[in-house]
Backbone:
């Protein structure tokens, strides 16, 4: 059923926003509609009815609190969202026992990553990244002429913190994704603390950007957020997002936590009014919905364990996963597997060079993973 702009607002005004809003705004986000558009033809073409295990989204979408916050915000849709931005910054600050001056909002956490690259790198200030990791910072760096130092992950797909610290000498920024996308592995709080201390000592002008997009999904008891490190010194930034466990990928709300001076440096490269009223109000409501977050953690944990066991039983053990996705070595070129899964109605992750034999699989609902596992088995048997 299609809706004109006039009929949409007639329905919204009648109090029935949810009847058409819920299917449109979900945890699937932008890649649900366009499947990326920057990573090849497979992710450029919408595949109707496919099970989407390719974008690390929350398959369950936002919770009721977020939907209520979004629908209530329609009455202010004609206003610029300055008041809501201020309110969300204050709320995030309070959640971490910080002031609003310690918080920078962004249009998703990718906006925070881009602004950090622009603020702290340049032709004579390289960027250090793992290989592979989330591509956005590296792509942004290359766009502005910044050299990128890529450090391969270890044999067990963990970030090589020693090698990254060595590569940080003279760098402008180090990007540390923890848990790392796409490898799904995580480092505990002590190794991260030691890494920050070493880089700060050996290359004191280097800033460290720690991406905690998947923070809420981690079960490893050795892990802890790096936010205390970001508030102790001016050379550490922590990036967070509402796109993952909160299921608001399509609303595009992320944030950075750092010392006020660092926040000002990042903020100089973010676009004013880049966030929208609906996303801000949805994020504000989601921030305090702790029961929903715990439910999503439990659902992800169960579906993840099921998938890991099924792949291991089939002879393909996955790397240790501490996120809402996993990375599995197929021991062969992974592209035929991706194509076979797509033909069978399941989309899996794009290639992540140099790990050509690996495939990233996002965790969907339990029903989706049951269907997906059967497709995986057929694809592995015939590829």
Residues:
């Amino acid at each position: 059923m299609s809706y004109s702009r006039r009929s949409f607002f007639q329905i919204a005004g009648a109090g029935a926003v949810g009847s058409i809003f819920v299917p449109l705004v979900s945890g699937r986000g932008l890649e649900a509609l366009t499947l990326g558009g920057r990573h090849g033809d497979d992710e450029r073409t919408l595949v109707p009815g496919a099970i989407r295990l390719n974008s690390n989204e929350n398959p369950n979408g936002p919770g009721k609190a977020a939907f209520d916050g979004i629908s209530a915000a329609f009455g202010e849709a004609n206003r610029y969202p300055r008041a809501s931005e201020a309110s969300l910054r204050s709320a995030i600050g309070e959640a971490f026992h910080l002031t609003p001056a310690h918080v920078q909002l962004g249009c998703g956490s990718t906006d925070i990553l881009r602004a950090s690259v622009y603020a702290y790198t340049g032709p004579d200030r390289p960027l250090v990244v793992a290989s592979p990791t989330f591509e956005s910072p590296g792509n942004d760096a290359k766009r502005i002429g910044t050299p990128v130092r890529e450090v391969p992950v270890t044999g067990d797909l963990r970030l090589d913190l020693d090698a990254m610290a060595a590569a940080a000498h003279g760098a402008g920024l180090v990007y540390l994704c923890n848990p790392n996308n796409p490898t799904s592995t995580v480092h505990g709080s002590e190794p991260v603390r030691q890494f920050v201390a070493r880089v700060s000592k050996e290359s004191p002008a280097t800033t460290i950007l720690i991406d905690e997009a998947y923070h809420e999904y981690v079960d490893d008891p050795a892990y802890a957020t790096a936010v205390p490190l970001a508030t102790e010194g001016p050379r550490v930034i922590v990036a967070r997002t509402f796109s993952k466990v909160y299921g608001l990928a399509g609303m595009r709300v992320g944030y950075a936590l750092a010392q006020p001076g660092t926040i000002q440096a990042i903020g100089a490269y973010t676009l004013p009014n880049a966030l929208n009223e609906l996303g801000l109000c949805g994020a504000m409501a989601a921030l305090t919905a702790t029961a929903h977050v715990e439910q999503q953690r439990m659902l992800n944990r169960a579906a993840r364990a099921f998938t890991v066991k099924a792949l291991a039983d089939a002879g393909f053990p996955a790397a240790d996963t501490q996120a809402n996705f996993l990375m599995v070595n197929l021991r062969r070129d992974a592209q035929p597997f991706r194509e076979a899964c797509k033909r069978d109605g399941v989309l899996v992750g794009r290639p992540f060079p140099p790990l050509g034999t690996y495939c990233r699989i996002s965790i969907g609902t339990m029903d989706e993973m049951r269907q997906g596992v059967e497709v995986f088995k057929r694809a592995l048997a015939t590829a």
